[in-house]
Amino acid sequence: MPTPTKGTRLGGSPAHERALLNNLAAQLFENKSVTTTVTKAKRLRPVAERLITFAKRGDLASRRRVLASISDKGIVHELFTSIAPAVAERPGGYTRITKIGPRRGDNAPMAVIELVLEPYSPKEKTVKEAEAVAETAAAEEADVAEEKVDEVDEAKAEAPADVDSGAQEDEAQAEADEEAQDKADDAAEEADEKAEGETK
């Protein structure tokens, strides 16, 4: 038996390994779940999900690619008509591996690999994004409110100064008016005195 150059090998040769994984994938698509060892389940997952991705495309070329791995046309038909539409909205992760404990006899770790056919609804992610947006909007509104309060406080602080300056201007204007009136009165008195002197 040839020694594998890298990683573990299932079976005696690469062709045997491919045949083993293809048969497991066919059983998975037919029965929707397969009980096998943990190692085989982990090696089966990328093979099965790649075939499901081909089935989601739905064209003739993809069907021929799947038929090159799974020769049973009935299973391929079920994959394209039943399984692919069920996972059409799911972006990935079409299989689930659940460990079930060691096998009696050789104590090999066992697992169940099954198809994830539940309806896909990304509600949790949408809710989290909505909450984040709401928190951001609330923080922005709070900042705007604080800025408005600061502006009002500054306006109130500047208002007395404006009133004082206005009062000072009024007082200065009144004093100037009084001085002008006094000068006008003095000029009128001088004119009267000159007129009386001329008449005498």
From TrEMBL:
GO terms for molecular function: structural constituent of ribosome. InterPro entries: Ribosomal_bL17, Ribosomal_bL17_sf. The keyword GTP-binding does not apply. The keyword Manganese does not apply. One of its GO terms (biological process) is translation. Pfam families: Ribosomal_L17 (PF01196). Residues 138-153, 167-180 have a biased composition (Acidic residues). Keywords: Ribonucleoprotein, Ribosomal protein. Residues 131-200 are annotated as: Disordered. Gene3D superfamilies: Ribosomal protein L17. One of its GO terms (cellular component) is cytosolic large ribosomal subunit. Part of the 50S ribosomal subunit. Contacts protein L32. Belongs to the bacterial ribosomal protein bL17 family. This is Large ribosomal subunit protein bL17.
